[in-house]
Write a structure and sequence with these properties.
Layout: H1 9-41, H2 48-79, H3 96-128
Helix pairs in contact: 1-2, 2-3
Length: 129
């Protein structure tokens, strides 16, 4: 980045919004996880509500981590829009620490799907008995 470049308010706003999306999605994921813990504390364990919250939490974690990776890739370009030499290219800097939350989110999502299907099968089996 050029030290003399003046960064316009619109550029700062775009940068803020790009990073706001993963932050909001991650916060929502934590809130869904907390609501699931409240249900577990109240004795609701093998229930469709827990499975639904697992799925929602997984999707929120996955989308938060994915948008965070994308925001990190476009951030140098956004910050350098006003450079005299032109903007910097996209930078992909993925490592296992960055990709771990993506796979954890998918794991929670699929765990919720499996739990919902197991609940459905258990209820179906109870009808036969």
């Amino acid at each position: 980045m050029d030290r003399d470049a003046q960064i316009a308010f619109g550029t700062r706003l775009v940068f803020f919004i790009v990073w706001l999306v993963p932050a909001v999605l991650g916060t929502l994921g934590y809130l869904v996880g907390f609501s699931m813990l409240v249900l577990l504390r109240n004795g609701v364990v093998f229930d469709v509500r827990i499975a639904g919250r697992l799925k929602a939490m997984g999707l929120l974690i996955f989308t938060s981590a994915t948008t965070s990776l994308l925001a990190g890739a476009v951030s140098p370009m956004i910050r350098s829009w006003h450079n005299a030499g032109g903007p910097l290219p996209l930078r992909f800097w993925y490592s296992s620490g960055n990709l771990g939350p993506v796979f954890c989110g998918l794991a929670f999502f699929f765990l919720g799907l499996v739990m919902r299907e197991a609940i459905r099968i258990a209820r179906e089996n109870e009808e036969f008995v």
